[in-house]
Amino acid sequence: MSGEAFSDADSAGVFMSIEQFEYSSIPADAEALRSEVRAFLQQELADFPAIKRADSWIGFDAEFSRKLGKRGWVGMALPKEYGGSEASAFARYVVIEELLAAGAPVSAHWFSDRQSGPLLLKFGTEKQKQFHLPAICRGEQYFCIGMSEPNSGSDLASIKSRAVRQGDKWIVNGQKVWTTNAHLSHYMIALVRTSEGEKRQQGLSQVIIDLKSPGVTIRPIKDLTGGAHFNEVFFDNVELDNDAIIGTEGDGWSQVTAELALERSGPERFLSSMTLLNSLIAMVGAHPDTLQAKEIGRLTAKLITLRNMSLSVTQQLSEGKSPVWAASCVKAFGATFEQEIPELAQALCDVSPASVGSNEHAQVLAYLMQMAPSFSLRGGTREILRGIIARGLGAQ
Amino acid sequence: MRDIFDSTIERFFLDTVDTEQVLLAEKEGWHTALWTSLDELGFALAMSPEEKGGAGATWSDLCGVARLTGSFSLPLPLCESIFANWLLGQGGLDPLSGPLTVAAKSDLKSTSGAVSGVLKDVPWGRFAGHIVAVMPEENLQRLVVFSSEQIKSLEPSDNIAGEARDTLTFEDATPFLTAVLPVQLPANIVQLGGAMLRSAQIAGALHKAMTISHEYAAERVQFGRPIGSFQAIQHQLAQMAEHVAASVIAAEAAFARSADELDLLAISAAKICTSEAAGVGASIAHAVHGAIGFTHEHQLHLLTRRLWSWRSEFGSETYWAKQLGEAVCKKGASEFWPAVTAGYFDTFQTETSQ
Questions:
Q1: Residue B272: which of A23, A301, A396 has the nearest Cβ?
Q2: How many angstroms separate the CA atoms of B82 and B88, rounded?
């Protein structure tokens, strides 16, 4: 789901403590971007209905991603030589939180922007960087993330997909599952086994797979809403060039772990139900009853606080740290918040969720009610995150 | 300044404020010797200007101090004294030596200079040398300072942590000091500042409760292994950690954003989040500790009885959430996110409490 690691990519040596949650605010130069992004979105999404906005970051629109690319808002933290604009982590934060709050369809470039780009920049060869990063920044090249397999969900280190060296090629066999956007992406960054190590976490590598390659089969999996965002992907003797490995062969586990702080701390971890929260406020109107006022006030306080937690992790990331533990707190707490919104929306107003008919609020409620279970599954389940958080306390 | 404050006060608390001393203070109501030695450190004057003997600190320098008073269950009005002296400074008055306290719930009225009225839920009311309150007058807020001798009658009350929360009545009293407060200060300034301080104290107490719960889970062996190795326990501790992290950042944000003037939105967010966390955290800490944590002998109740008390003080979760929610609804859906990112709802007006 979301093609993200569900995994227990473990946090050995991860820096952790409650004290790392220091208050950080967005610097003025980054904040200055906000009005420009808002004006752009107001124009671009003028006729974009709430039910589409409710898709949040699984909404796919390649044309929209290319427009963002033209504005320099994809891969914006990447170096200029690779097509980025060397923007600060906070400038990127302003852009992505505005996109998410508006319910813009960002999923085409989302994974490339959030993690594949930074991963390639950090571990990629010069050739890989030259080939992929400029196209990512243009909003034209989309990556999906191949982690989970049929028998490897939370227990990611047990994956069976394998790349075997044959002459100057790698031959990949195996299967990935729950891969968001595989059917719409150009490349997959897959975690595969390339050798056996003493520990299961050794001998894993990240490889770039061109999804047009012979031997790749992609089958959509319908989710419970009837939508098809994720897929199963089969590899049958798929040939990769020798340079398909990202970073160091056999070091895939530590590379994946390093990505976790990026993928678990962003505003997408608490803004998934934003369209419904807006819709709830509109439905309640200017004169809430006591119960409505209290719960909407409480949700607002949580939103403000989650945003401060997330900004605090952003500050740490911008200092080159890898705050996986703090990011796990953001994601676990954020998912609870995202899931609480449909519960409260249904409880606070006499509007039944409706898949068809009724009104827009009823449809947004129906959709997010059904999507909500995935919020604490994708990107690491609540249970896995809580394991990481608890073990982090142990190192204090 | 913050680092020196934090390390100084932590060292002092480590040396002087242990379970025995807190229990003694609770039993006697007041711990004179502890106040005397704490007062010597001069923290009550932290926010007063240097020429008045203070350190010229801002609120952002003091979040750590407030958190530490919570984590050590300090049974004394240090936060109240700092805040009272800050209010005096806002009124252009010189700081007073403590112990001082503040009253958020006030119906004071003045008749030709003589002030009468009732102050409710006054922290440490019967032990404070001076009591600071705010009295609305036509178009202005007047700061009123009484000395303890001026109390006409006192109805004692304790919160469940044995901390005095008294009702004080004044009758035709000529205040010890008065001053006009700057117009930009909201009418509920005492409630607001008190909520900010309690949010940090709750964050501190929760952090400590989490630390000792984790330590206990690592030591206590059942079924041949530490109970902390069971997922059922781990997940509870993790859930608590999420709330502690949220509480700490919410309190820090409230103090940081109140450097110039007390930030209504940040403070209400902090009091709402920490008050909710207080209930969740206290419950988990007791679940993890089992029966031993339910004994008088164990230190856990020093923290949890304060959590259960402080979440009500200076406005409960519901008190603040209801007002914030009304402001959000009045602002409307299309302006909701812009107001969140601006950190300001112009529809969020302060109300006085009584």
A1: A301
A2: 10
